[in-house]
Structure formats: structure tokens, C-alpha cells
């Protein structure tokens, strides 16, 4: 894996453990020589992640709509800041540049981004693996809800199993690599 797209909060959350997690992930990606692709923000966990990866000598590519850059939301020090015109374009550019996608703790923006890439993988629009970093069980309530949806017959068990989930980055990267080797998820409904 050369580059990993990370979706995560533009705010700090209410526990310093979230910032520590983002900082650890940034440093570990840099240590492994995996480039970071993210939304280009300087606030919240996004900023902490980028700062930490840069400090450890990693490559950081930020992608942000011009209107957000003009509102001074962009991180000034990233290796490369790519500008675009819309949130749709931003997600497409991030997806193009990354080999896999993961979500760290976040809110609506994070959920929207990770669900889009996961549903598009299910439909075969791309073959890049998708995962959740379930540190401290942050995503466990969401995973429980998803299991309920699967039990109702709206989410194939194969799609749920295809989502890589691990409590720490090394295990999550292993799970993503394994899915990269396996290739695309079998087509939805096949
Ligand atoms: P959330 O998980 O709701 O914090 O959203 C994270 C996503 O929202 C990222 O894609 C961010 O680019 C975007 N976002 C929302 N507010 C901001 C902000 N003030 N600065 C940078 N990005 C933001």
C-alpha cells in the first residue's frame, strides 16, 4: 500500500484520547512509508493527524474545495494541497490517489465519506478496501447497528465481512492488505 485515505473529525471530540490516536496513526503511517491522503483541514483530529505525519517525515496530500481553503480551513504545511470546486470532486480526487480508505473517530462528514466508498466498493465501482479503526470501541455501536441492518436482510453478510475492522492500526493495515490481495468484493447480489 502506497497511500491511505483517512477520514476523521474536523473537531477534537471530548476526550484527549482521540487526538492521541490521530497523532499515533500519523506517526505510524510515516514510519511505514505510507503516504496520507486526507481532507486537507488544519482543525480537529484532521490537523493532529497531518501534523504528526509531517513531523515524522511522512508524505501528506490534502484535498479541499477552494471555498473551504478561502475560509482558511486548509493546513498550510502539507506536502501537497490539491484544490477542487466541490465536495464531490474532493472525494473523487481522494479516492483516485489512495489505495485504501479508513475512518478514525468523526462525525457526519466522516460517516458520509466512509459509507460512500464502502457502498461503491459493494457495487464494484472500485476495488480499494475500506476499514474502520475501532480504537476504544468507538465504532462498536455503529457496527451493532449495521449487524441489525444485515439481520433485516438489507446488508449482505459478505459486505459486512468485507469491511476491515481492527482496534489498532497494525491489525487494520494487515486486514486491508489481505483484501487488496483478494481483489474486488464479489458483485452485490451475485
Ligand atoms: P466531521 O466528521 O463531521 O467532522 O467531518 C469531517 C469532514 O468534514 C472532513 O471531510 C472535513 O473536510 C469536513 N469539514 C467540516 N468542517 C470543517 C472545517 N472547519 N475544516 C475543515 N474541514 C471541515
How are the secondary structure elements laid out?
Layout: E1 3-7, H1 16-31, E2 35-38, H2 44-55, E3 60-65, H3 66-70, E4 80-84, H4 87-97, E5 100-103, H5 108-122, E6 130-133, H6 140-151, H7 157-162, E7 164-166, H8 169-182
Parallel strand pairs: 1-2, 1-5, 2-3, 3-4, 5-6, 6-7
Helix pairs in contact: 1-2
The chain binds adenosine monophosphate (AMP).
Adenosine monophosphate (AMP) binds next to helix 5.
Structural features, described:
The structure is a single chain. The protein has helices at 16-31, 44-55, 66-70, 87-97, 108-122, 140-151, 157-162, 169-182; strands spanning 3-7, 35-38, 60-65, 80-84, 100-103, 130-133, 164-166. The protein is built from eight helices and seven strands, in the order βαβαβαβαβαβααβα. The protein has one domain (3-180): Rossmann fold, CATH 3.40.50. Helix 2 links the parallel strand 2 and strand 3. The two termini are 28 Å apart. Helix 1 (16-31) packs parallel to helix 2 (44-55). It is α/β, with parallel strands linked by helices and 190 residues long. The chain is globular and about 45 Å long. The chain has a seven-stranded parallel beta sheet, with helices on both faces. The structure holds adenosine monophosphate (AMP).
Which key terms come to mind for this protein?
single chain, 190 residues, alpha/beta, Rossmann fold, seven-stranded parallel β-sheet, 48% helix, binds adenosine monophosphate
Amino acid at each position: 500500500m502506497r497511500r491511505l485515505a483517512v477520514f476523521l473529525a474536523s473537531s477534537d471530540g471530548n476526550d484527549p484520547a482521540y487526538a492521541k490516536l490521530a497523532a499515533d496513526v500519523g506517526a505510524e503511517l510515516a514510519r511505514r512509508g505510507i503516504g496520507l491522503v486526507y481532507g486537507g483541514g488544519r482543525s480537529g483530529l484532521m490537523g493532529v493527524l497531518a501534523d504528526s505525519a509531517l513531523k515524522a517525515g511522512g508524505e501528506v496530500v490534502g484535498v479541499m474545495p477552494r471555498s473551504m481553503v478561502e475560509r482558511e480551513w486548509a493546513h498550510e504545511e502539507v506536502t501537497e494541497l490539491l484544490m477542487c470546486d466541490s465536495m464531490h470532486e474532493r472525494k473523487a480526487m481522494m479516492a483516485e490517489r489512495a489505495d485504501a480508505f479508513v475512518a478514525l473517530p468523526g462525525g457526519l462528514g466522516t460517516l458520509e465519506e466512509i459509507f460512500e466508498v464502502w457502498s461503491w466498493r459493494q457495487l464494484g465501482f472500485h476495488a480499494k478496501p475500506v476499514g474502520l479503526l475501532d480504537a476504544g470501541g468507538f465504532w462498536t455501536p455503529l457496527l451493532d447497528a449495521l449487524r441489525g441492518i444485515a439481520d433485516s436482510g438489507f446488508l449482505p453478510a459478505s459486505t459486512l465481512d468485507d469491511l476491515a475492522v481492527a482496534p489498532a492500526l497494525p491489525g487494520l493495515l494487515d486486514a486491508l492488505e489481505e483484501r487488496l490481495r483478494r481483489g474486488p468484493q464479489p458483485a452485490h447480489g451475485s
